[in-house]
Amino acid sequence: MRFVTPLPDMCFRQECRRLSQIHLKTLFSLLIALTLSLSSVAFCENGINGYSASPEFAASILDKYVAAARNPDARTSSGSVQMDISASLPRLQKRGHMRVLKQISRVGHSTYRVLSFQGDDTVKREVIARYLQMDQGVRQEDQMAIVPANYKFRFKGQRDANMGPSVYVFEVTPRKKRVGLFKGELWLDAETCLPILEKGRLVKSPSLVMKRVNFERGYNIEQGMSVPEYLTSTIEARIVGRVELSVEYSNFAPGSDEDTGKSAPATVAEASE
Predict the structure, then answer these.
(1) Out of 26, 32, 127, 230, which residue is the most buried by the measure of CB atoms under 10 Å away?
(2) Do 104 and 112 meet the contact criterion of CB atoms below 8 Å apart?
């Protein structure tokens, strides 16, 4: 019979803090709004399931993507959204779930109201609360944006979903192996050319503690905007093992011109109490 020595609480707290402070900041930098600039792009002519397209056709799709992303009406700005956040540390048999209301003011400041929490307090403090802190501090960063300046785009073709919209699929590869960038896929809605899926693996670990970081983020197209639907992420870490995080977004409500975000007075500090 194999026995596993329990991880001391102090050691666990130190490692969780190290993971949270370093890794979550990098991971959720992938969630920032796109700030796009166009440059040279690499394409392939053979697409999905034999579908083929010329480089000119693929380039025209990217042009529409850039134009749509630059349109302020196509991006979520002020408003509110409900977030259901689940996190777990399977090796330590610790997990938790928190429901929060996030409100974003016209100037981009986010506030959170914790609606409920169930689970382990350590996961609440060291994983979920720190994620909310990083989410609150996210700003647009050109070096992290999914744009031709940072990535090579390889057009894979058009995919017709059985129960969903038709999509254009691009394979994206970073031009430089830099922390925060990923190798994977970008799916665009064929009608609007707005993103509906981003998924892949970080190409460079932000810490020796982390071995691999995989993520997937989905969007819905609502009222001409690309609205986050869900996020899933798996971090393979040394000592504490796998860290799993998922976020589901719902009840998005655009803000009015008079909205200042003051209707959500609670801050992320409430999540760690």
Answers:
(1) 127
(2) no
Tokens of 85: 């956040």
Q: Which of 134, 133, 128, 137 is nearest to 244 (CA)?
A: 128
Phi and psi at 246, nearest 5°, equal -140, 145
**For position 178, what pLDDT does the model report?**
84
Tens digits of per-residue pLDDT, 24-38? 343 334 333 332 333
The answer to whether 164 and 187 have CB atoms below 8 angstroms apart is no
The answer to whether 30 and 144 have CB atoms below 8 angstroms apart is yes
**DSSP 8-state assignment for residue 189:** E
| The amino acid at 233 | S
Question: Are β-strands 79-89 and 94-104 bridged in parallel, bridged antiparallel, or unpaired?
Answer: antiparallel
Tokens of 108: 């981009």
Phi (first) and psi of residue 135, to 5 degrees? -65, -40
Torsion from C-alpha of 261, 266, 267, 269, nearest 10 degrees: 180
Contact yes or no for 98/111 (Cβ under 8 A): no
8 Å CB contact between 114 and 100: yes
CA nearest to 24, candidates 120, 137, 103 = 137
Range in 53-67, 117-131, 140-154, 171-185 with the lowest mean pLDDT: 140-154
Edge-first strand listing for the sheet containing 225-237: 110-119, 94-104, 79-89, 241-254, 225-237, 210-222, 195-202, 182-189, 166-174, 151-160
